[in-house]
Structure formats: C-alpha cells, structure tokens
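so i finally got all the pieces together for this one. its two components total, 650 residues if u count the protein bits. some of the lines might not be protein, just check the labels. i wanna see the whole assembly predicted at once instead of chain by chain like last time, that was a mess tbh
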Amino acid sequence: VSRIALDAMGGDHAPSETVAGAVEAASEGIDVVLVGDRDRLGDELRGLGADLPIRHAPETIGMAEDPARAVRAKAGSSIVVCGRMVRDGDVAGFVSAGSTGAAMATAAILVGRVAGVSRPTIASVIPKPSGRHTVVLDAGANPEVKPEHLVEFAMMGSVLAEVYHPVVRARVGLLSNGEERGKGRTLEKEAYALLEAAPIDFIGNVEGRDLASDRVDVIVTDGFTGNVLLKTTEGVAGMVAAMVVGRLSALTESTRREALAALAPLREQLDYENTGGAHLLGVKGVVVIAHGSSTRVSVRNALHVAAEGADRDLVARVTARIGIR
Amino acid sequence: VSRIALDAMGGDHAPSETVAGAVEAASEGIDVVLVGDRDRLGDELRGLGADLPIRHAPETIGMAEDPARAVRAKAGSSIVVCGRMVRDGDVAGFVSAGSTGAAMATAAILVGRVAGVSRPTIASVIPKPSGRHTVVLDAGANPEVKPEHLVEFAMMGSVLAEVYHPVVRARVGLLSNGEERGKGRTLEKEAYALLEAAPIDFIGNVEGRDLASDRVDVIVTDGFTGNVLLKTTEGVAGMVAAMVVGRLSALTESTRREALAALAPLREQLDYENTGGAHLLGVKGVVVIAHGSSTRVSVRNALHVAAEGADRDLVARVTARIGIR
C-alpha cells in the first residue's frame, strides 16, 4: 500500500486547513484518508465540494496533554487511529501536525521500532542555495543521547539523503564547535571514533555554517542542539529577509517593485515552515511530522513527502541499512 | 589606566593587519601599545609612517600548540607578555586575534579570575535589526557546564549588556528547545530554578530565533551550543545575503546597481566577523578575543571594544555584581 493517513484533527488550523491540504494532495494523485471526527470532516469536504475517504476518530489529544499517557488512554483519538492503521497495514504511514510528542508516542507504541533502532529520530531536510539539501538529525526527538545513538542517526540520515536526493553516497558530518578532530564535548569525542568505524561516508566534524554548504549531506547531533540549529536557521533567514525588504523601501516605487519581483523566488526557498514536515525515522511505517502552524500548503507538501517515502520504500531501506551494522 | 595592549603577533594576518588596525585606533584616540617582536613591529610602523609604543616579546604561540603548556613554557611570547602587563597594572586589558585557547590560558594563569567566578566565559555581542544587541554567552569557552555556571554567565552577561547598551536592566533568557518551562535537557531544567532565584531579570526559556528579537538582551547557554548558535547565525546570514545578490543579477544593470546601493548598509550590519571581538568575562582585566582572520578593521574595532570596557569599568562592575550573590 502507499495510502497515507492524515491526522485531520491535529494542528493549529485543523480541520479546515488539513482537509483543504488533503484535497489538494488528492487532486495531485496522493491516496489519502482523513482521520478524525466523521461529521466535522464531512462538513469541511462538502464546503470544498470534494470527496475523500474518512476514518472516524471521535477523540483528540491536546498539545498540553502528557503524550504517552494520552496515547494509552485515548484509543479513539485521531493520532492513535492513524497509528493503528499503520500497524494493521491499512496505510503505509501517517502525517500529523498535532502534538509532536503524541505522534512520537503513537509511533513508538503502535507502529513499533525497527529492529536494531534504540532511538527513533526526527530528520529535517533543509534546502541549500545550490538546490541540494542537508538532512539534519536529530531535530528534537532526543534532547540527550549517547554516542551510539549518533551512529544510528547517521545511518538512518544517510538512507534518507540517498532515497530522496540525487546523492550516490551521503557524506555525513558530526556537528561540533570546530572542524578539527578532538573538538566537541565528551559526546562528540566518543562518537567520532564510532562514526569512523560505521558503514557510512563520515567526513569528520562540521560546523553550523556548513548547513548551507555542499560539502556535507547529513549533519548528526543530539536533539537539543539540532533543534537550536534549525530554529536559529529559520530565525536568521527571516530576519535577513525582513532587513532586505526594509532597505528596499528606500528605492523608488518602480525600482523597488522590480527588485522585490526578482527576490520573490527566495521567499519560497527560505520558507522552512512549508517544506512539508520532518520524517520520524526508525519506526515500522512512514511517519511525517508537520509544523503545528501548518497551512493547507504545508499539509499538502507533507502528504507528498510521506507518499514519496512510501513509494521509495524508505522503511524497508532503513531496516536493511540498520541490519548491516 | 585605560591603555590597551595588542598582541600584535596573533592572528592570520599579523603583524601587518594588527599594526595597521592599531594605528587607525590610535588616530581615533585609543591608547594602545603593540606587543611583539620589536624589529618586525618597527618595520611595520615605519612602512605606515606611524609611531606607537612597543613592548618587546620575542616569542609567539602557534594555533596548534597546547595552550596551557605553551603559556607556561613561553614567558617571552606576545600573549604572555600581554597578560603580565595586565597583571602588573601597566595596561587595563589586552586584545588578541591569536589562539583563543592561549588567550584564555593567559587570562586564567596571569590575569586571574574574579573572586566568585568559577568559569570565565566568552560573550559575543550580536547586532539586531532594531539596532539593539543580544549578548550570547558562553560563546565557546566552556563546552560542558553545570547549572550554576549558567547563573554566573547570566550575571556577567547582564553587566555587559547594561554597561554597553541602552538597557536599564537586561532581560536574560535561557536557550532551550522550546519556550515552555520544563523544556530542555537536565542542564536547562536544573538551571531554570537557579536562574529564577538569581538577582537578574530572568524571562524564562528562549529559542534560537530570539537572537534577532527585542524581547531578550542576554541569552545564556553552554559553550558548545553557544558556538553552534553563533556559527549558524554567521553562516545563514552569509547564505541569504549571497542568495539575494544572486537573484538581483536578473535585473537590468541600473536597477541592480540601485538595489545593491540600498542594501549596502546591511553588509556591515550582518558582518559578524568585524564586530570587533568577544569579551572574556570573569577575569581581573579587560580581555577581548578577536577573530583569527581579523583584518585591520576588526583589530581597530576590537581595540575600541576593549577601551570602552576599560573606560566603563567593566571589570569592577562584574566583580561587584558577582559579589552580590
């Protein structure tokens, strides 16, 4: 199967934006099933003059709830129903813009970890100026890790880079506070030797600025540092873009309009929120976690990302790669 | 005294750029003494038709040497002579673009820690779009820290923000992977309670994107994460700037020239390498660490930063603040 379940009740703008995004994705060939309250989803579909399969789920899990407890207690919640559908083979995976914690707990409890994976990890795919991409992981699932977890991340991130992007063999860098060997905390020093011995193309330490460079395809770090790296990137890109637009206001109206038109494609290129969500790697199904603030565009993009993961056998390839350790 | 010693032999472009930067700073009223090889510095000065006091130091410490060992072994090195001059009260502080490790070791061994400071820390001052600044510390001196060290950083960073910038009372944020209380690693969770109890204006957790926002004046974190934050900021700002310039090439020549002229002031605003160096806080003298790749502009700026620190009694104020715990 390559059908994808959408947690249609998850996210700040659910269900109106989630349903609208699903309708767009379906019109582009994605096989999607909406999971959530039957009546509300039916209303949204009617409003759009569209028809999509619905799997009823009467409950929801809020952002403030304890994820693991809520997942165990609410068998009828939209995210838990998504997880059961993956477990039962009804769908290849699910997309959620709801609580990241609940999505991770659902994946761990219902979908299950790939044999040999001790820590499933969130992988963000960041576009570079060259048109290539950098996979950054862990993006926030595991704030504190051991050196051997970084090796798992490196192997799974390599698969993701090789599956999605025109990379024959992904080059993996270890995020550190300097390029020289021996830089870093105890974590990086111990992980360095393990990464050298792992079946990956390890290029050594890299720095935050390498996110934009073409010398590395996969950057591994703990989930705390990865989260800081990604949020800083978003923040600085937005800041510089705002400063540029501010400066151009000094120009005459027509020159300004021409300059802004020339810069317009950058807006999309730097719009990290709309890249469509991050993969949760290391579980026995395709799981894509979208931004809580996802609009219909982000939801549509996330469904495409999930469908590609299913079509390209992402889970089977991760399983095979982890097996060769 | 408010005289500043310059390690004229430190940095990728020493001594030509260091001497040129010192000559510029001196012409702007900074009282600077060059420290390094008497003959080479004399030659540089003659080439510029300038005259500045020189303190002879026949040796240098290379980037690859073990810092603490080299500082103990090379009593005649330019950085060690700088440290002795601070210790003996000949100068208020020193600036170095040489090995950061050697500058830190010199500060610890010769200048000495302020009573009550267990970990001197490097504080970077980052310009914001609004014209205000954010102090980020630790920027790399201490890759692994304990919660109580973050409290020291917060207090010293508050002094720096209040001394240099128009801030009555600096607002301090703890860098974490989310704003809610309870986010972060064990380090952040334990530090949160200590920061609440400290004599500072603690606003809670902040994220990487807050570097550019006006809601926080001081961001505290460990030296590993701080280094990643700062290098990512540098890298992304440079990347976006390059993408903007690339896009503008699609315009006609005259429109392009107008747009680039309007954007020119941003180049300086985003040029983190030329901000003039970071303060090493918590030692009994003004110590400013400049980028290894410093040009004359960076060296001049760093000397201004150091002279301001001396004029505004930075060290006495840090000492007083740390004493009120």
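The mean pLDDT of chain B is 93.
The radius of gyration of chain B is 20 Å.
anyway lmk what u think
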